[in-house]
Amino acid sequence: MSLVDIKGLDVGYVRHRKVQPAVIGLDLAVAPAEVVAIVGESGSGKTTTANAIIGLLPANGRITAGSAVVDGVETAGASERTLRRLRGSVVGLIPQDPMVGLNPTKRVGAQIAEAVRLRGGAPEEVFEHLAEAGVPDPELRARQYPHELSGGLRQRVLIAIALAGKPKLIIADEPTSALDVTVQKRILDHLGGLVREQGISLLIITHDLAVAADRADRIIVMQNGRKVEQGDPAAILGTPRERYTRQLIAAAPRLAHAGRVVPRFDVRGQEKPEPILELTDVSKTFAVSDLRRGARGFNALDKVSVTVPRGQTHALVGESGCGKTTTLRIALGLETATSGSVKLDGDEIVGRSWNRLRPLRRKAQLVHQDPFATLDPKFTIGQSITEPLVSFRIGNRKSRLERARELLDQVALPASYLDRLPSELSGGQRQRVAIARALALRPDLIMLDEPVSALDVLVQEQILQLLADLQAALGLSYLFVSHDLGVVAELAHTVSVMSHGKVVEQGPVAEVFTNPQSPYTQELIDAIPGRRVADAV
Amino acid sequence: MTRYIVGRIVQAVAVLWAAFTLTFAILYLLPSDPMELQLAAAGVQEDSLTPDQLAAMKQRFGLDQSIWAQYWHHLTGVLHGDFGTSLSQQVPVSDLLTARIGGTLTLSVSAALLSLVAGATLAYLATFARWNPLRVFLTRLPALGASFPQFFVALFLIQFFSFQLGWFPATGNEGAQSLVMPVVTISVLTSSVLAQVLIKSFDETLSQPYIATARAKGLSRSAVHLKHAFRNAALPAMTILGVLVGLTVTSSIVVETVFTREGVGKLAQESVLSQDVPVVLAVVTVAAAMFVLVNLVVDLLYPLLDPRISHTRGRVRPAPEVVTAT
User: Fold this and answer.
1) A318 in any annotated domain
2) How many angstroms separate the Cα of A248 from the Cα of each of A45, A109, A209?
3) Labelling A473: which of A6, A174, A257, A290 has CA 20 to 30 A away?
4) B217 to chain A: nearest residue by CA?
5) DSSP notation for A377-402
6) Which of B29, B35, B20 lies closest to B73 in space, CA to CA?
7) What is the three-class DSSP state of B3?
C-alpha cells in the first residue's frame, strides 16, 4: 500500500474571494522507502503539493477537490487535530533555507528535544539524532544557538529535527538552493544514505532536474500546477516526451551532454586579449577583535592575482568564505586592499580617494546576487535604470528616458515595464532590470556576483544566455563570481578557483574541466549534479 | 560584558544630566521674574519693599548670583538630594516630592503592569484568533484605544462607574478602590500602544520559516505561539517599554488632576501654573530619572533574552562545517 496516495487533487489560494488554482488534478503516490522527486519552477505547484501532504497550507490555501491520503489518513478537509498527528510523526519536513529555519533564540538541542518529547522519547535521544544527522560533537552543538553554527550544520540540525519524530516520510523542500554546492552534496548524500538505511520515504522538491535525477527512484515533472510527465530518471532523461522536460534537461550543464560538462567557450591555445582588470598580489587583512586573544588579523585574501581579459569572462569560484566576494569588492573599490595593486583599464585604483575613484566607476558596474533586494522597492523600473545617469548628470530627462527604453530592449523586456514597480516583476525579470541598470553607463566591465544562484534553472539559463548575447553585441567583459562550476561552464572563458583566500587553480575553463590539478577543483566538478546519469550512460 | 554595562550606565547618567540642564536652561529663559512671583504668592507688592530688602531676599534664594553659579548650585544640590526650596510654598522641594512620589509611583507601576498584561493578552488573542472577523476586530481595537484622549476616558469612567454605578470613588487617593479608575485610564492608552507594536511584531514572527519548522514537528498551535513566537515577537516591543513607562508618568499629570489625587503629576501641574521653578526642575529630573532607569534595565536585560546579541566578543564567527564519514 502506498504511504502517500494523492488522487485528482486540486489546491487553490483564496485571493479577493476567488480561488486561484495552484495544483490541478494531481495524481501522486509515494511507496514506503521510495525516493520521489517533484521537479518544477516557481509557481508550478510543487511546494503547495508538499504543504498539502504535511497539512501546512497557508491560511488562504484550500483543497478544493480530490483526496490526499497520507498513511491511511485523509488530509483533504481534515481537522487541525488530525493533521497535527501526521506532522512530525508520519511526515517530517526539511525546510528550504537552513539559515532561517531554526528559532534564533532557542538552543539547538531544545528545538530537537521538542520533537523527541512529542513522540514520548527520552531527552538523551537528542544527541543520537544529531549524530545520525552527521553533526560532530553532539553534546556541544546541542547547547549552541543557531547563529553559532554554519549553514551546513544548521541544515543537519534541521535533518535531526525531522528524524527526531521518527517519520515514515521526509519532505526535503529545495535542499540545494541555499548552501554551497559541495556542502549540499555531502548533506544530500548523507540524507540519502539515512533514508535508505531506515526505510524512510523521501520526497524531494526541487527546480533542478539534475538534482532529482541523481537521487530519486521516480521523477514527477510539474508545470503550472499540473503533472506533465513522470517516470524513473533513465526514462525521463532518455526519452522525455514533453518539450518542457527537454528544456529542463537542456538547462542542466551535465544532463545536456549525457553526463559530461562541456564548457561553452574553449580558449585553449588562443592568444589572451589585453586585460581590462588586473589584480596583482592583492592581500586583505581584516581586524578581528577577540577578548581572550586580543586583536588579531584575519587574512581574507593572500596574494591573489586575477586578470579579466577584455571582451571575455573570468570566473571566480569557491565556497562561502573563500574570499571571492572580498576580491570582487576590492576590484570595485568598495573595499581597500591591504597590499597589492588593482588596475582597471590601466588605471591604478588602490589608494585612490572616493572622489578620485568616482570617474572610474563608470567603467565598472555591479550586478547583485539577490534580484529581490537589489532594486529599491519604491522606485519604478524606469527610475532604477536611469539612476546611474542622473547620478553622473548624463543627458536630460528626455534622453534618459530614451536610453532606458533602449536598455530595456537590450535585456528583452517591453518598454511598458518602465512604470512598473519591482514587486510586479518575477525574479528573472528583476535580474534583467538589474543588468539594464548596470549597462546604463556603457561600462567596459560588469562584475556579476552570483547573478543566477537565486533563480530557477530555466530562468538561470535565460539570464546566462542574455549575458552571453550582451557580451557578444557590446564587447563587454565580465568578472563572474559563483560557487557553482556548472554555471561557470555556461558563461566563462577563464576561471580562478579560490579556497581559503588563495587561488588554488587558474586557467581556461576548458582546461580546468578536462584536467583539474587540485583536489578541491575536482570536488567542485563532482558537485555539479547529474553524475548518476553519467555513470548510467 | 562589564564594558557594555559600564558604557550603558555612563550613557544613562549623561542623558539624565542633559535633561536636567535643558530644563534648567528653559526655565531660566522664561520671561518672568521668580522674585516677583514669589512675592505675589506671599501677598506682598514688590513696590512696597525697599531695594535693600529686595536685595536681601534675592540673596536668600541665591537669585543675585550669575546663571552659572545658580546652575552649579542647583546641580550640586541635586546630587546631594537637595532640590532647593519651593518658591510658592516655602518648604524644601524634597519634602514636597517625598510626600507625593509614593502615590504617583503606585499609580505608574500599577498602570505599567496592567498595560503589559492587557497589551500582551490582546496581541496574543488578536494573532491567535482563527475566525477572521474576530481577528480583524481585535487587530483594530488598539487603534481605537490609542485615539481616545485621556481626560475623556477619565470623565467617562467617573460618569459611569462612580456616578451611575457607584462602584469606585470619583476622587481622592484613599485605599486601593480609588486607584482602579486612574490606572485603567492610563492603561487604555499605554496598553493600546503596546498591543499595536506587539501585533505587528507577532504577525512578522509568525511568517518566519522557523515557525513552519516548529509546526512541522507536530507542535500544537498554542505551543508554537507560546514557545516559539511569543518571546521573539516580544523582543522588538521591549524597546518601547521605556517610552511606555515614561507615558504613564506624563499621563499622571492629566489623571491626577482629573481624579484630584495627590501626586507628583498634580504637583507638576500646580508648580507650572505658579512658575515654581525649583519644583518643576525637580519633577522633570525625577521623571527623567525613572525613564532613564527603565531604559537602562531594558538594555541590560536584552542580551539575556536574545542570545544573538552578545557583548563578550567583537563578532561571532560560525563554526566551520566538518566533514564526516558516513
Assistant:
1) no
2) 16, 40, 6
3) A257
4) A88
5) TTS-HHHHHHHHHHHTT-S-HHHHHH
6) B20
7) helix
Cα A272 versus chain centre, distance: 32
CA distance A428 to A433: 9
Is B306 in CB contact (< 8 Å) with chain A?
A: yes
- In degrees, rounded to 5, the angle at the alpha carbon of residue A30 between the alpha carbons of residues A163 and A32 is 55
| Residue-wise pLDDT tens digits, A432-464 | 999 999 999 999 999 999 888 878 888 888 899
Least confident of A84-93, A249-258, A268-277: A249-258
CB B194 within 8 A of CB B116: yes
Reading the block at residue A267, the C-alpha cell is 580558449
Alpha-carbon separation of residue A472 from A312, A449, A477, A491, B158 (angstroms): 9, 20, 10, 12, 81
Instruction: Name the domain boundary from A400, A419, A442.
Output: A442
Query: What are A52's three cell numbers?
Result: 498539502
C-alpha cell, A266: 574553449
Question: Which of B231, B316, B326 lies nearest to residue A190, judging by beta carbons?
Answer: B326
Number of domains in chain A: 2
Q: Do A458 and A246 touch, CB atoms closer than 8 A?
A: no
Q: Are B281 and B27 in contact (CB under 8 A)?
A: yes
**Residue at grid coordinates 516520510:** A169
Question: Is A452 touching B (CB cutoff 8 A)?
Answer: no
Helix (H, G, I), strand (E, B) or coil at B77: helix
Query: Position A490: which residue type?
Result: E
- Residue A321 CB: number of other CB atoms within 10 A? 18
Q: What is the pLDDT of residues A15-52, one digit of tens each?
A: 888 888 889 999 999 999 899 999 988 888 888 999 88
Class of domain B94-305: mainly alpha
Record the cell numbers describing residue A263, joined without a space.
Answer: 564548457
| Domain ranges, residue A5 | 1-90+170-176+190-251
Going through A354-488 in order, the beta strands assigned E by DSSP cover 364-367, 445-449, 477-482
Using an 8 Å Cβ cutoff, are A512 and A331 in contact? no
Strand order in the sheet with A35-39: A91-94, A169-173, A201-206, A35-39, A218-223, A226-231
The pTM assigned to this predicted structure is 0.79
Contact status of A291 with chain B (Cβ, < 8 Å)? yes
Q: Where are the alpha helices (DSSP H) in A227-378?
A: 233-238, 243-251, 253-256, 324-332, 354-361
- The answer as to whether A348 is a domain residue is no
Check if B209 contacts A (Cβ < 8 Å): yes
Contacts (Cβ under 8 Å, ≥6 apart) of B319: A144, A148, A149, A150, A153
Taking a contact as any Cβ pair under 8 Å apart, which residues of chain A between 84 and 103 contact chain B?
84-89, 91-93, 95-97, 100-103
